[in-house]
Amino acid sequence: MSDKTDALSPKPPSEKFSIRCPRLGHQINFKYCEIENSGIPCFKALDCWYTYFDVHKFLEDKLSKEDFKKVFIDKGQPKVLSLLDLIEKAKAKKGRKS
Ligand code: SF4
């Protein structure tokens, strides 16, 4: 029987460990990803770090339920929907003026 386990570490790697950030295009450590979005994690943190440690559990424990949901579940609407929303608002505003 093997003692090998596939369990991920519950803690992030040390700050010396870095990965290539797909958004910035250079090496980065988890400390940055953890606070990238005005003090809350980057919305891609789960995707970028899941193979290195149990980032889901780590951030779920660290963040409030609302912040976790805001960052990783309600990632915001796609830009095209935001743009359509802005156009509709502008039309409604113009309609009220005339
Ligand atoms: S979590 Fe965000 S900031 Fe960090 S490496 Fe991934 S894309 Fe870059």
What does this protein structure show overall?
The chain has 98 residues and is mainly α. The protein has one domain (3-97). Helices cover 48% and strands 4% of the residues. The protein has helices spanning 30-35, 45-49, 55-62, 65-73, 79-97; strands at residues 19-20, 27-28. The mean pLDDT is 87. Iron/sulfur cluster binds at residues 19, 21-24, 28, 33, 36, 42, 44-45, 48.
Keywords summarizing the entry:
single chain; 98 residues; mainly alpha; two-stranded antiparallel ribbon; binds iron/sulfur cluster
Uncertain regions spanning at least 5 consecutive residues: none
- Taken together, the total number of domains comes to 1
Approximate strand percentage: under 5%
Give the end-to-end Cα distance, rounded to a whole number of Å. Answer: 79 Å
The ligands bound in this entry are:
iron/sulfur cluster
Question: Based on helices, strands and strand pairing, what is the structural class?
Answer: mainly alpha
For the largest beta-sheet, the strand count, sense and barrel status come to: 2 strands, antiparallel
Helical coverage, percent range? 40-55%
Encode the helix/strand succession as letters.
Answer: EEHHHHH
Number of helices: 5
**CA-based gyration radius:** 19 Å
> What is the strand tally?
2
Strand order in the largest sheet: 1-2
**Mean pLDDT over the full residue set:** 87
Globular, elongated, flat, extended or rod-shaped: what is the shape? elongated
